[in-house]
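ESCALATION

Customer reports they have been waiting on this structure for their group meeting. Please prioritize. Original submission:
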Amino acid sequence: MGSHGDEQDWDAAAASGHEYEGEPVEALLGVWHGASPAAREAFLAAAAHHADDRLDPGTWGEAPTEEAESSAALSQLSRDFNRREEALQSALTVTQAAKLIGISVQSLRERVEAGDLLGLKAGREWRLPPWQFSAETEKGYLPGLRRVRSEFPAGLVSLCLWAVRPNPDLGGSTPSQQLEAGHVEPVVRAARSITSAAW
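Update from on-call: job pushed to the front of the queue and completed.
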């Protein structure tokens, strides 16, 4: 990456005769789509290498201050903790969940440890979000949770939110509804396709 040939390739795409009007980002996208994969890699490597360089304020706006960045980070953490608290308030205890699906407390803990059931820790005890249980399924809980959890790019609290929201990649149904119907593969693909930035 970053070879002279790649640079020429990128320059050629930029000078390909297209006239880019409007916003700078639109112009960049036009060049990007006209570049080869090698040229794109060279561009991304250069961008990463110069990540600390100042951007043109006229194009991108002023960079946030350290105080603004700190405030944004604190706000995000507050949202995360609030989401966790909300998830815990509606969650089942191990005893409640075990009774619900007709297994022993020890067996339920083993399923949580294996990833077949999803649990949040409240102190030293597990709490289990209720959306993963269903009387319509063979075992009383949704299939495929371990696989979905392994593909989902964010934490368990975010997964709990994602699981119960309508998803355009799933025809407008929620991931939990698809799992309840036994459609594990589409949910795994949907989890794989998103990025952590969305959460």
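Sent to customer with the following note: The longest helix spans residues 66-90.
Escalation resolved.
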